[in-house]
Amino acid sequence: MEKDDLEIKNKIGETTFSIAIINECFHMVKVMKKNDNLLTLKNRHGAIPVVVASLFSAKEMVRHLHHKTPIEVFKPESDDRSGATLLNSLIVDGIFGINISESEIEGSGESEGDLESNANASRAKTHCVLIIFIRNLIKWLVPDIKKIHDAKLSHDQAVEHIRCIFKEIPRLNKKQLEMFGLDKAIYDAIKHGMIEFIEEIMKLYPEIIWRKDEKGRTLFANAIVLRQESIFAHVLRLGSKQRVALLQHDIFRNNLLHLAAKLSPPSRLDHISGAALQMQRELQWFEELRKILPPKFEEELNENNRTPASLFSYEHEELMKEGERWMKNNAASCMVVATLIAAVMFTIFLKSNAFLVFIIANSISLFASSTSVLVFLGVLTSHYAKNDFLQSFPAKSILGLFTLFFSIVTMMISFGSAIFITLQARLAWVSIPFIVLSTIPIAILRCYSSLS
Fold it and tell me: What sequence ranges are listed for the domain PGG (predicted)?
């Protein structure tokens, strides 16, 4: 086969070389590289081989071809967009460092000759071989350390890439920043809680704190809308620098308190179990912003003629109803259990000469279950006002569940002591398995609490 034959494309616009790259056939790629034009030959989509490899997530092939492809192709000054496409694909696949692979260290005969003729290159080769040996040894002995190392290395390299990109931002004009998609990138970083991204861009481009997106919202405003505590706290620590950002309004005439009144994204609410606790979290955000912002913000109207308080009630109407149902169902269920415990503790062994442990455990269980019944009865008879979800309901739920759990524990102690008293005279050994079995419900509850 002649060299030119390797450049022939099939019906879908791919050469034999690009197909070998997609399938990561290193042997075929090495054989075909005798035609240097293949490294820069584009397919029908305008992608050169190394970009094709990156688009198909062929990581090792990317590392192999990156060193062989002419550097001029990747330079920003070139009309070719291969460099930008490759960078984008590498970031998506998490390839933040192009390292020397073992096959490249072994190299061909020509490259080995060059290394032997150069003392510095020889030392570099030895050093790389040593690094690979240590890396493989660590990977074989302690895989977890290797995973941690790779994750940390990938994170550090990603941050370094971010710094390089952000250094170019001050040189770009408004139109270029829009083409660059800066606002979308910042929004996505806030949405996913990428605090490192925000910290780096604020260091290299401090004016970003006052920049508004298409909705007229600043970085601080989006942190409030998306309920990102870490980014919110970081911007808040800037002190006087963030005061101007606090006074901004978006294109809908919403101030920051209006934005705090909006319902959280589902991705943030899903992290909190129970509609009542979700409502509590929403109220905490709103009250925290109310303390920080000027009092006049509470009376301002947005384009829908709503104050922040009225907007909060409107946005959280369904969540309040769900919270009310959740509290009632939870309280009713716990009341049934607590009432049963109180009834059992009051009737069992009423005519027996109980042991001191049984009497104490029985009395405590009766007191705790009765307290739980009264607490949940108070929840069921509440008015379910908006502010009740902030402190009242969570506090009552915690107290009711604690006393219910405590009554279950003391009930088990009472049960175990009663079994022991009843059987110790005739079958003392039988009481031990029963006592052990009585602890299983508590252990199961503890395991479920740890997993949730």
Answer: 349-421
